Amino acid sequence: MSFFGNKRLIIVLVGLVLLISVVGFTSRERVSLTWPEMFFKDTFSVVQGFFYRPAQAVSGFFQEIEEAYGVYEENKALKAGLDQYASLSAELHTLKAENDRLREMLQAKDSLKSYRLRYAEVVARNPDTWNNVITIDKGMKHGIKKDMAVITAKGMIGRVQSVANFSATVELLTSYERRDHISADILTQQVVNGNAVFRPISGVIEEYDAQKRLLVMRKIPWGQAIKKDQQVISSGLGGVVPRNLPIGYIVRVEPDDYGLTQTAYIQPSADFSQLNEVMVVERDFTIAPNGELIPQQPAGQTQTQTTVPPAPPASGGGQ
């Protein structure tokens, strides 16, 4: 038994020696391989290729899925960023437009320091009466009264038609149903003694031409030289609308049907399609029951008995 056991050990040792000798021999740099080496290499290459290609395909499939999911997540993040950018851009444009409107209103306030202005926002505008009336968020509780003039930063848009406690209805200059006329002046430049002076030419704004989108001013004295782009302002002669409120600019002038007076077509200064914030102009006088004009006193002062003589009535029932 010991002989056979030693024989096995001797065989194992001899095998290890041969294996080490073969490994040492084959590890050297040679010109060509032996046929057993070539056989084993070719066989291993075929077997490796048989398993490698499916494994590589499966690995590539999962890698493509992972990349596609990464692209999906990135695209989702980019879309969210674009939506946020669009929202911020719209908000920025809205704030910029509001800032421009408020800046214009501040400039208008500086140019109308002689009047007390009450700011209001347009809260309703019915499409059926788009050119007739608007509703503002100020009423009697805020000092708003009937017939007060209403303006924007660019010019006059109408007058207060009716007043509730916390809101008021404003009749626009573009109203088809407007019956009240507005006394107005055309500012013309004339040369007197070598100096250029502005002299007003009076008339009455009676209606609005919806087709031409122009205000119609009639009863202008014949022979007065009126040119295009001359400014039209309220004259204040009617006792309702304060004077010097900008209304518009002359587009053209033509004689009336009888050739005794002239008719002017006026482009409104205000943009009636975009009415958001407005200013209600408080008059500096009140009208007594006998028709006398009584100046309003600043807050804290008592009313004196001095009255202003009645203003000459404007033809056509002007304001």
What this model shows, in words?
The strands form three sheets. The protein has a six-stranded antiparallel β-barrel with strand order 1-2-5-4-3-12. Strands 6-7-8-11-10-9 form a six-stranded antiparallel β-barrel. It is built from two helices and 14 strands. Residues 297-317 have low confidence and may be disordered. The protein has helices at residues 2-26, 35-111; strands spanning 116-124, 133-136, 149-151, 156-163, 168-172, 182-192, 195-209, 214-221, 231-234, 246-255, 261-268, 277-282, 285-287, 293-295. The chain is α+β, with helices and mostly antiparallel strands and 319 residues long.
> Strand order, biggest sheet?
1-2-5-4-3-12
Overall morphology: rod-shaped
> How many structural domains are formed by the residues?
2
Helix amount? 25-40%
- Give the radius of gyration: 46 Å
Distance between the termini: 140 Å
Uncertain spans: 297-317
- What is the CATH architecture annotation of the largest domain? Beta Barrel
Order of helices and strands: HHEEEEEEEEEEEEEE
CATH class of the largest domain: Mainly Beta
Number of helices: 2
What class, by secondary structure content? Answer: alpha+beta
**What's the main sheet like?**
6 strands, antiparallel, barrel
- Beta strand count: 14
- What is the assigned CATH homologous superfamily of the largest domain? Rod shape-determining protein MreC, domain 2
